[in-house]
Amino acid sequence: MATKTRFNVRTITLLAVLVALGIILKRVLGIDTQFMRIDGAFITHTAIGALFGPITSATAFGISDIIGFMLKPTGPYFPGFTLSAAITGVLYSLFYYRKELTLKRIIMANITITLLDTLFLTPIWLTIMYQVPFWSLMPARLIKVLIAIPIQVIIVYFVLPRVLQAKFLKQSKINI
């Protein structure tokens, strides 16, 4: 039987800091257009997914989306994006939580999450919101995906193992 993540002050603080950092990387330092965003939030998303289970990750991602929207709205609020964030949180956890970090796993995680979120769910939400034809969104998104996936894989491959070995995580008593 798998042990549950122990929620103590340090663990909750760590989750809050990662959520806040993700909001900064996505909403403050990210580059927004009406139909696409380029940001570095995948770094904190990966860490949350690796450190916390699917339910905690989904909740954290959903809360992060809502808080990020309240701090810096980029259009009207649409709950589909919050749902996408929660699904993404579940996926990051399914790929990384208590799993061996192999290059194959990191590649599969990035491809799966990117295809589902960037090439499927987000265009659906944009089509619903702005009545833009689904397929007209694909050319720019495909270019973004082809550039982003290798970059994300390389960063996650080199950064995530070091984050998970950090001394402060061991002190937080997170069951990795």
Which helices and strands occur, and which strands form pairs?
Elements: H1 9-28, E1 31-32, E2 37-38, H2 42-51, H3 54-71, H4 79-96, H5 103-130, H6 138-164, H7 167-171
Antiparallel strand pairs: 1-2
Low-confidence blocks of residues: none
Tally of alpha and pi helices: 7
Spatial extent as radius of gyration: 16 Å
Q: Give the helix proportion (percent range).
A: over 70%
Counting structural domains, the number is: 1
Strand content: under 5%
Give the H and E element order. Answer: HEEHHHHHH
Tally of DSSP β-strands = 2
Tell me the span between the first and last alpha carbons.
Answer: 14 Å
The largest sheet is: 2 strands, antiparallel
The level 1 CATH classification is Mainly Alpha
The CATH architecture comes to: Orthogonal Bundle
Overall pLDDT confidence: 87
Structural class: mainly alpha
Shape: globular
Strand sequence of the main sheet, in spatial order?
A: 1-2
Fill in the CATH topology: Arp2/3 complex 21 kDa subunit ARPC3
Features:
176 residues; 7 helices; Arp2/3 complex 21 kDa subunit ARPC3; mainly alpha; globular; two-stranded antiparallel ribbon
Account of the 3D structure:
The protein has helices at 9-28, 42-51, 54-71, 79-96, 103-130, 138-164, 167-171; strands spanning 31-32, 37-38. It is mainly α and 176 residues long. It has a single domain (9-171), classed as Orthogonal Bundle (Arp2/3 complex 21 kDa subunit ARPC3), CATH 1.10.1760. The longest helix is centred in the middle third of the chain and has 28 residues, at 103-130. The model has no long low-confidence stretch (mean pLDDT 87).
